[in-house]
């Protein structure tokens, strides 16, 4: 599969944001759609007609040449069904809302918030003469 952004030197990419795939086979296309399904941001799908659909890919049905996926388009309140066979490329165009959000980061943030709150309460208690 052709990826228009350089791969990480470590062999793993932390986010797909900004990457674009132009699959050359059904297998590569299915892989790109699977990545888009797991992505927590909008994707832009370019169709053979030249039209582009940008939105959140939320469902897919893989049945060989009859495979389809669904998108909540950013410009429409409905759902759009797209055939795999109509896809030329898949771009991860929206912000990856999960990028950098690991469990360790969440725990560190919550611990920092708890400490700040405890410090604030202690200051208030000292100001009232309770400590």
Report the CATH topology name of the largest domain: SH3 type barrels
Average pLDDT confidence is 85
Continuous helix count: 2
| Rg calculated over all Cα atoms | 22 Å
The run of helices and strands is EEHEEEEEH
**Widest beta sheet: strand line-up:** 1-2-7-3-4-5-6
What count of structural domains? 2
Structure description:
With 131 residues, the protein is α+β, with helices and mostly antiparallel strands. The chain has two domains: 2-91, SH3 type barrels (Roll); 101-131. Helix content is 29%, strand content 27%. Strands 1-2-7-3-4-5-6 form a seven-stranded antiparallel β-sheet, covered by helices on one side. The longest helix has 25 residues, at 103-127. It is elongated and about 75 Å long. The protein starts with a strand and ends with a helix.
Please name the defining characteristics of this protein.
single chain; 131 residues; alpha+beta; SH3 type barrels; 27% strand; elongated
């Amino acid at each position: 599969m052709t990826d228009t952004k350089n791969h990480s030197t470590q062999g793993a990419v932390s986010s797909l944001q900004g990457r674009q795939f132009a699959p050359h086979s059904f297998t590569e296309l299915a892989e790109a759609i699977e990545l888009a399904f797991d992505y927590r941001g909008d994707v832009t799908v370019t169709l053979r007609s030249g039209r582009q659909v940008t939105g959140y890919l939320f469902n897919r049905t893989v049945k060989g040449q009859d495979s389809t996926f669904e998108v909540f388009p950013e410009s429409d309140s409905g759902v759009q069904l797209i055939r795999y066979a109509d896809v030329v490329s898949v771009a991860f165009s929206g912000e990856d809302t999960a990028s950098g959000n690991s469990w360790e980061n969440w725990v560190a943030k919550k611990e920092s918030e708890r400490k700040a709150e405890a410090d604030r309460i202690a200051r208030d208690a000292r100001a009232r003469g309770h400590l």
